[in-house]
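Q: Could you predict the 3D structure of Alpha-glycerophosphate oxidase C-terminal domain-containing protein?
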Amino acid sequence: MGGFISVLGGKITAYRAVAEDTVNLVCRKLGSKTLSSTAQIPLPGAPSPSQEAMEQAALESGLSMDTITHLGNLYGSRFSRVLDLVKKDVRGGQNLCPHSPDILAQVWYSID
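A: Sure. Here are the predicted C-alpha cells for Alpha-glycerophosphate oxidase C-terminal domain-containing protein:
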C-alpha cells in the first residue's frame, strides 16, 4: 500500500520520540514545514510534587507517607486530585490490599 505509514514495536521509554519521528515524517509527506513540538511540552502531571508538599498532604489526609509518595510518583503534580477524592469520601483512603500502597480513590480517579 503506497504511502501507508505504520509504527510497530518499541519500548515505552522511546514511544514519545518514535511518535515525534512519525509525525515529522507525515508532515514532510504532506508538504508541511511544521514539525512536532512534543519534546518541549511537559507530560501531564509534571513536575513531580515536592517532598514538602507530599509531607503536608500526608498530615492533612491521614494517609501514610508511603502511600503519598506512591501517589506522587504515579500522578506527579496531579496526586492532589486523588487526595481530593479521599477528602470527599474517607473510604477512598482504604488500601486495596495490605501489601500495596494503592488506595480505593485511585480506582475512582481512573473511572472519573
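Q: Anything worth pointing out?
A: Residues 54 and 64 are 10 Å apart (CA to CA).
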